[in-house]
User: What shape does this take?
Amino acid sequence: MKPERVSTGSLPLDDLLGGGLERRTITQIYGEPASGKSTLCLMAVVASLRAGNSVIYIDTEGFSVERFKQIAGENAGQLANRLYLFEPIDFAQQGTMIADAEGLLRKSDGAPVDLLVMDSATALYRTELDLGREAVRKLSHHMIRLLGLAKKYDIPVLITNQIYMDVERDRVAGLGGTALEHISKAIIRLEKKDSIRRAMLRKHRSRPEGLSFDFVITKNGIRTV
Assistant: This one.
């Protein structure tokens, strides 16, 4: 029997999420550039690979082999054999690769896929913003498809999101509006000040909003401070 949650590879992040990434749901991490979004994704990937599972990773910003090696350590090459990497070059291809991922989830041979990561869900969406509502419709379709995979195959989906200034509410918010906010069952905001980062819970169905922990980025992941 599968555990209800999948570890992120970070004990404080697992605690913030009530035990880890919840299956059959989308967890979103958003924040400004260099706030640690990709590092947290790679830590979750490595943790799942070390547990003997396979992972699907859709990277729209350029996968860092060197960073993966740092976090995975001396067994990076062996672990990489079970990492299925997709690198779409435009927003349309992003949708195609989400669909293609289902073929890997259906596979009955080899180590099962137990985590799907998209870093980031909105990098290519930015190039479509001039299309207005059509861009939002496409993004919503991508997220609904991801949620469908999470539910059908009983896995957690982890996505990252970029930010913008919400002038009406006078606050920083994640891109994609309600398309991403409503479909994500857990949302974590990352903030940075100099070398210190803060992970703050912005949405969760059973945990209070505002819980947080501070951390610094290290060679092999993160360290709380």
